[in-house]
Structures are given as structure tokens and as C-alpha cells.
């Protein structure tokens, strides 16, 4: 097995982050088997708790999550994930994103979700989640539809974050 690679993460407003990813098919199996370790390596190195394939420029419906409860690894691989049920009750969490470094905002979403997906071995699974995991699942599935957490905010707030990010990226490039 080859060493996992740390991949460059696309930064907003990269247009590729706004594209809808296509479903993973059996023909993609070899590619996703290579890609999954790279996604985890990239996410852990960042560090982050979730990463979707479109964030590294790959337009496939694939994402990885690890909330590391009590500092222990708890990796989740989501192939073709879909929210199949969501609570009417909402919850607000502060969200960030590796494609919007150093930017955070409160995002309100359904408090509980049920997600259907295929795991890395090709088994169909469902996961019921609440709290941070529910927010993280919805955030990553949004990426597969070209939606960023800032798209859930008012245009004013969204533009403020995008301007601040652009400024920070210019300063970083200049330094
Ligand atoms: Ni994100």
C-alpha cells in the first residue's frame, strides 16, 4: 500500500467548490480506495473534523469525518451519503471549514438527521446523529451539492466573511 498524500485544499471562492459532485459508481472503486487515505491524511494534517472530495478538486460524492471523541480516532467514510430524515427541531453550532480557513459562524440546521450512505467496503449503512455529528454530516453533504456553510448565512454576513478571507489570503500570499 502506498503512503497517504496530503492534498492541496481548495479555498473559497474557488468555483469548483460550487459544483455539484457526481455519484460514486463501481467504476470509481479503485480511485476512491486510493483517495480515502489521502482525504483522512489531509483532514488530520489541517487539522479538521471533516473533508469532502470536492474540497480537493475531485467531483465525487465522497466525504470523510472524524470528530475524535475523547481524542480517539472515530473515522467515518461516506460514499454517496444522503439525508433521509431530519428533525423539525433545529440546532445552532459554530461552524468552520477547511476551504474557509479561520472563518467561523453560527449555522442553524436540523438538530437530528438520519443519513444513508455506503461505507468504504461497499456496504449500505445508515447513521442517526445529533449534536456536532449531525451538523458535521450536513456540512459535508452540503459540500457534495456545492453548498458552503456561508451559504446558510445572510448575504451580508456571507460577503463579510468572503471579503475577510480574501484579505487574509492576500496577506498570506504577500508574506
Ligand atoms: Ni467544509
Describe this structure in words.
It contains three helices and seven strands, in the order αβββββββαα. The protein has 175 residues and is an alpha+beta fold. It has a single domain (15-174), classed as Peptide deformylase (Peptide Deformylase, Alpha-Beta Complex). The strands form two sheets. The protein has a five-stranded antiparallel beta sheet with strand order 1-2-3-6-7. Strands 4-5 form a two-stranded antiparallel sheet. The chain is globular.
Q: Give me the side-by-side strand order of the main sheet.
A: 1-2-3-6-7
Oligomer: single chain
Question: What's the shape?
Answer: globular
Assigned CATH superfamily:
Peptide deformylase
Query: Which small compounds were modeled alongside the protein?
Result: nickel (II) ion
- Main β-sheet description: 5 strands, antiparallel
Strand content: 25-35%
Q: Architecture, CATH level 2?
A: Alpha-Beta Complex
What is the number of domains? 1
Which range best describes the helical content: under 10%, 10-25%, 25-40%, 40-55%, 55-70% or over 70%? 25-40%
| CATH C-level class | Alpha Beta
Amino acid at each position: 500500500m502506498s503512503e497517504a498524500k496530503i492534498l492541496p485544499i481548495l479555498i473559497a471562492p474557488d468555483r469548483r467548490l460550487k459544483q455539484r459532485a457526481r455519484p460514486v459508481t463501481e467504476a470509481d472503486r479503485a480511485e476512491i480506495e486510493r483517495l480515502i487515505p489521502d482525504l483522512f491524511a489531509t483532514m488530520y494534517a489541517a487539522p479538521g473534523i471533516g473533508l469532502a472530495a470536492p474540497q480537493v478538486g475531485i467531483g465525487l460524492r465522497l466525504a470523510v469525518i472524524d470528530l475524535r471523541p475523547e481524542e480517539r480516532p472515530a473515522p467515518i467514510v461516506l460514499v454517496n451519503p444522503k439525508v433521509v430524515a431530519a428533525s423539525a427541531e433545529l440546532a445552532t453550532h459554530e461552524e468552520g471549514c477547511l476551504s474557509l480557513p479561520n472563518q467561523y459562524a453560527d449555522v442553524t440546521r436540523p438538530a437530528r438527521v438520519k443519513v444513508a450512505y455506503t461505507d468504504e467496503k461497499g456496504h449500505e449503512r445508515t447513521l442517526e446523529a445529533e449534536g456536532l455529528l449531525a451538523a458535521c454530516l450536513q456540512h459535508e453533504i452540503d459540500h457534495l451539492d456545492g453548498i458552503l456553510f456561508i451559504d446558510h448565512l445572510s448575504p451580508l454576513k456571507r460577503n463579510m466573511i468572503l471579503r475577510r478571507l480574501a484579505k487574509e489570503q492576500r496577506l498570506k500570499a504577500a508574506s
